[in-house]
Design goal:
The protein is an alpha+beta fold and 375 residues long. The longest helix is centred in the N-terminal third of the chain and has 25 residues, at 2-26. Helix 4 (230-247) crosses helix 9 and helix 6 (304-314) runs antiparallel to helix 9 (359-374). The radius of gyration is 22 Å and the shape is globular. A hairpin with a 2-residue loop joins strand 5 (71-76) and strand 6. It is built from nine helices and 22 strands. It has a six-stranded mixed beta sheet with strand order 18-15-19-22-20-21, with helices on both faces. Strands 6-5-4-1-7 form a five-stranded antiparallel beta sheet, with no helix packed on it.
Length: 375
């Protein structure tokens, strides 16, 4: 009997050490520098809605482990804290990384971090802020925004912000804005140089194979608000869209079909290995300003499906469409498959939260996607 007990104990210790070895290889310590206009929030959990436990100034040197989906974990004042990895530069493993973890932070000099946060500023230009077609003072002038007006924008290239103006993408000089409500934003170009020819090309012909990526999952909950958790919302909508597309003859593959964690690189790899005609990543948004709401479309490089989907989203009843943004999200830039990321709405806004829970809205969204793909 004692001999059997010894064997059981030995097996338990063996399993424990195998776990430790796999854990160590998956979570490799890396070093980096905080890059932000002001300061970067340290949060209690890997979510933009998690409590802030401190701040790091731009230029701060850190050691961290990547916990996935644009979040890293650090030790802050003796306990775990989380930072948005989009604002960490110079990712270098201090020991050998393996598997997905080694792939999840491949960066190049012409690919600075993406910016996902919405900024709100007040126009300080006495004669009004000029709105331009491109991020250049030589670009065509589309109009002006009055002095004192509040503007929602996303950081684009150095010193420029991207907005939606009269239904189209436009740019403003952010030096004429003050009072931004976001302190997790950075300046930096979002270059498309590294994209393959396939990704930059327009989607042509019939779409017959689609990979749908329900954002977040497992230990990564995503945004929270009004009783909603992003990872649950994205999976619900993904399954609804899959059902609709399959009923119309389109082959669909989900990157996850349950509440599980999937590495970013694996999501991108699935799109390429499936030889999909389109990779569609589904998300919901969150913001500290509960008045901000609306749907968004993001792409790394232009494709005509974004334009078709944009037309569909504008017509959805009760919903607000914020615009189409060219964004440097990991899952968009690391697949050669034409790709889009859609934000269904803001869980932090009561009106959007109500929509996201509505079965009617779920059907409206899946019909909008279907029509865009089959038009």
């Amino acid at each position: 009997m004692k001999g059997k007990s010894f064997i059981v104990v030995a097996l338990l210790f063996s399993t424990f050490f195998i776990f430790l070895e796999s854990y160590a290889s998956a979570y490799t310590v890396q070093t980096g520098t905080v890059v932000t206009n002001t300061s970067l929030n340290v949060r209690e959990n890997p979510s933009n809605d998690a409590p802030v436990i401190g701040q790091l100034q731009s230029g701060a040197k850190i050691e961290y482990v990547d916990v996935g989906y644009d979040w890293v974990r650090i030790t802050y004042n003796g306990k775990a804290g989380y930072l948005n990895s989009l604002f960490i530069k110079g990712n270098r493993p201090t020991s050998q990384a393996t598997g997905h973890q080694a792939e999840s932070h491949q960066t190049t000099s012409h690919q600075p971090p993406a910016v996902s946060g919405v900024n709100v500023g007040k126009v300080t230009a006495k004669n009004g802020l000029i709105v331009r077609a491109q991020a250049s003072t030589n670009s065509a002038m589309l109009g002006k925004i009055d002095y004192g007006s509040m503007v929602e924008y996303r950081i684009s290239t150095d010193g420029w912000g991207q907005i939606t103006y009269n239904g189209q993408r436009a740019f403003i000089d952010t030096s004429y804005l003050s009072g931004s409500t976001s302190n997790e934003s950075i300046s930096g170009s979002t270059s498309n140089e590294s994209k393959t020819v396939d990704q930059q090309a327009a989607v042509t012909g019939t779409i017959s194979r689609v990979v749908i990526d329900p954002g977040h999952g497992g230990r990564d909950p995503g945004a929270r608000g009004n009783g909603l958790i992003e990872k649950n919302i994205t999976l619900l909508f993904a399954k609804q869209i899959k059902k609709s597309l399959q009923e119309n003859g389109i082959e669909v593959y989900l990157t996850r079909s349950s509440d599980e964690y999937v590495y970013l690189q694996e999501r991108a790899n699935i799109a390429d290995s499936f030889q999909a005609d389109l990779f569609l990543s589904i998300h919901a948004n969150g913001h500290e300003n509960s008045l901000i709401r609306g749907m968004e479309i993001h792409s790394f490089a232009p494709n005509n499906i974004a334009l078709k989907l944009e037309n569909q989203f504008r017509d959805l009843p009760n919903a607000v469409y914020r615009g189409h943004y060219e964004s440097n999200f990991y899952v968009l830039r690391n697949t050669s498959t034409p790709s889009l990321l859609i934000e269904l709405g803001y869980v932090s806004n009561q009106a959007d939260a109500a929509l996201l829970q509505s079965q009617q809205f779920q059907i409206q969204v899946d019909e909008a996607v279907r029509r865009a793909l089959q038009s």
